Amino acid sequence: MPQRDAIHNIIKQALIKEGWEITDDPYVISYGERFLFIDLAARLDALNGIAGRFIGARRGSSRIAVEIKEFRGNSAIADLEQAIGQYVLYRLLLEQVDRERELYLAVADTTFDGIFSEPIGDLVMRELPMKLLIVDVEAVEVKRWIPARESGTL
Predict the structure, then answer these.
(1) Residue-number span of the structural domain to which 66 is assigned
(2) Which residues form the signal peptide (predicted)?
(3) Which of 10, 51, 65, 115 could be joined to 76 by an S-S link, Cβ 3.0–4.6 Å?
(4) Is the residue at 32 inside a domain?
(5) Domain presence at residue 96
(6) In Å, what is the CA distance from 51 to each residue of 13, 76, 141, 154?
(7) Which element (helix H / strand E) includes 73?
(8) What is the DSSP track for 2-27?
(9) What radius of gyration, in Å, describes the C-alpha atoms of the chain?
(10) Contact status, residue 12 vs residue 27, Cβ threshold 8 Å
(11) Is the omega angle on the peptide bond into residue 119 within 30 degrees of 0, that is, cis?
């Protein structure tokens, strides 16, 4: 099993605060002879009534998978490349094995305010159907849910 990002538990707690029930930590996808690990799976607690969208969790009939990325490497571009690659691969696999579960990429607010606010980050968000979860790591709270844009090419 891959090593967890340092913000893993912060993202998890922020989702729980939003009313999500963590169902899998990690969420394991088996495809062929391979096993892949998405950081979290969650569902929304139907009794809670808080409107939420995603992350390896469940809330009522809403189910999400969340890939958490810290962007702590020497190159923000290399981290972005890895995050995009994992996101696309996991989305393809979920389409085959768990179509009802929405996939989100969770990042710290400082990461979003960094590379994702630059022109290259804007390009990624504009052209890829990528859903983002932005978490304030200091307050341990979901700051923003960003749904995929319809104009994406992948």
Answers:
(1) 8-146
(2) none
(3) 115
(4) yes
(5) yes
(6) 16, 32, 14, 27
(7) none
(8) PPPPTTHHHHHHHHHHTTEEEEESSE
(9) 14
(10) no
(11) no
Query: 104 near 63, Cβ under 8 Å?
Result: no
> Which residues are CB-contacts of 78 (< 8 A; sequence separation ≥ 6)?
none
pLDDT of residue 47: 38
- Token duo for residue 16: 């729980």
Count of CB atoms situated within 10 Å of the CB of 148: 16
- Are 22 and 56 in contact by the 8 Å Cβ rule? The answer is yes
- 76-130 pLDDT per residue, tens: 999 999 999 999 999 999 999 999 999 999 999 999 999 999 999 999 999 998 9
Residue 153 falls inside a structural domain = no
Encoded tokens for 2: 């891959």
- List, for residues 37-71, the tens digit of each pLDDT value: 999 888 875 433 322 223 457 777 889 999 999 99
Check residue 118 and report its DSSP letter.
S
Number of domains in the chain: 1
Question: So what's the pLDDT on residue 153?
Answer: 47
Residue 72 CA to its chain's centroid (Å)? 16
Q: Return the CATH number at 22.
A: 3.40.1350.10
Tally of CB atoms within 10 A around 70: 19
pLDDT (average), residues 10-16: 95
Would you state the structure tokens that stand for residue 128, as one six-digit string? Answer: 């890829």
d(CA 105, CA 118): 17
